[in-house]
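Dear colleague,

Thank you for sharing your sequence with our group. We've completed the structure prediction you requested, and as agreed, I am returning the results in plain text so they can be pasted directly into your records. Please verify that the sequence below matches your submission; if there's any discrepancy, let me know and we will rerun it promptly.
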Amino acid sequence: MRRLLSIEFKKIQTYKVFWILAGLYFVFLAAGILLAEFMINHIVNDINSRLPIPFPHVAIYYFPDVWQNVAFFASIRYVLIFPAIIMIILITNEFTFKTIRQNIINGMSKTEFLVSKLMIILLMTLVTTVILTAGAFIIGLSHSGFNEVDFFSRGLPFMTGFFLSLLCYMVYAFFCGFMLRNTGMAIAIFTLYSLIIEPVIYFLFRAPFMFKNTIYTYLPVNSVIRLTEYPAIPMLKKIMGLELQANVSFTACLIPMGYAAIMIGIVFWVMKKKDL
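Please find the predicted structure tokens below.
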């Protein structure tokens, strides 16, 4: 296991594109989270200018709500697309530069090669979750202190939900990269499906003229972002009648995990049957 990780680290150690994209991801992630309250309250001000009784401003950085809010904003598909693109590039580069053949020639089995990529996914997800958890803790602490006795335990389910969201989404990218093996095509198709095609399908299934259904909950990308479906903002309940999440549903976690397991199984089967 250590040998496989060492090989992967050597590949990305001097790969500038990886570090630039990773840096951009954390910059956008931090900026989105830190500016979220300002942008929401700007919308509230706009709404209040048309109402006789104004809505109060929202505060999203206080314990225990900060955990859910940070997990929600970090799980938006437009943010998750960054690590997914990084993973697609790492996968497709193996075929573009023939390094996968060199690894096999040097004695690495196909199974070890795939396991090494999955280990990188797991490690990237774990590091990102730890950084996000530390950031949420610092933000919450700076706004509310230790007023909540169980402030950390109440945040654990949402941080776990984010971990699973990022992990499964990167496995989807892993699948797309291995199946298409072309960087431009894989990024284009994955981005097109994630950001355009599936949202259109989602709204079609929720349209009033459609038969009553819950099919949209089983869409691959939607099942990922539904783990933390709404931020902890009471005003959403008042205005839109939404039932705010109290926890991350174990049943909801099974759907993206099932997709991820199937995709990993397909990749292993294809790699076993197909020539490199």
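Summary note from our side: The radius of gyration is 21 Å.

Kind regards,
the structure core
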